[in-house]
Design a protein that fits this description.
The protein is of the alpha+beta class and 172 residues long. The chain has helices spanning 3-19, 33-46, 55-62, 88-99, 117-124, 129-171; strands at 22-27, 48-52, 78-83, 104-110, 113-116. The protein folds into two domains: 3-126, Ribosomal protein L10, N-terminal RNA-binding domain (Alpha-Beta Plaits, 2-Layer Sandwich), CATH 3.30.70; 128-172. It has six helices and five strands; from the N terminus they run H-E-H-E-H-E-H-E-E-H-H. Strand 4 (104-110) and strand 5 form a beta hairpin.
């Protein structure tokens, strides 16, 4: 990689750090090409990205971003998972790491808050943004459905009473 390529790579990664919400730092030593491909696929499905990094260049890209606190985590064979959804990258990385011990989660950051490995794992247990929206929509529509049911109940009871009197009158 020549100097201009390195500068472009740093600028590209700096832009990623400026635009993303969540970054998870991992060690990927020992992952096969197939496993790495499966991890990238899982990340894309979750709405996240996975990128192998060069430590020295990544430290340069971290400068003047809200993820500057991650600087010390970039030693050894590191890669990052990142996403705009605050939970997607953590969830995908933790789920893959459960089935593959060669992916080790070092930590991460949600905005300016630096998280250790346990913090990333705890964040991964939270529901995603889409799941939260679905739950909220369900909670908002539930009272309306209950009101409609309550309003229909008296009308149904009146109809049953009238029907009972009509049947009683026919029987007599």
């Amino acid at each position: 990689m020549d100097r201009t390529q390195k500068e472009e790579w740093v600028a590209s990664l700096h832009q990623v750090f400026s635009e993303t919400e969540m970054v998870v730092v991992t060690h990927y030593s020992g992952l096969t090409v197939a496993q790495s491909g499966a991890l990238r696929t899982k990340m894309r499905e979750a709405g996240a990205n996975f990128k192998v990094t060069k430590n020295r260049l990544t430290r340069l890209a971290l400068k003047d971003t809200r993820f500057a606190g991650l600087n010390d985590m970039f030693t050894g064979p590191t890669a990052i998972a990142y996403s705009d959804d605050p939970v997607a990258a953590a969830k995908a990385a933790v789920e893959f790491a459960k089935g593959n011990d060669k992916l080790v989660i070092l930590g991460g950051a949600l905005g300016e808050n630096v998280l250790d490995a346990d913090g990333v794992k705890a964040l991964a247990t939270l529901p995603s943004l889409d799941e939260l929206r679905a739950k909220l929509a369900g909670l908002l529509t539930q009272p309306a459905a209950k009101i409609a049911m309550v309003l229909q109940a008296p009308g149904g009871q009146v109809a049953r009473v009238i029907n009972a009197y009509a049947e009683k009158g026919e029987a007599a």
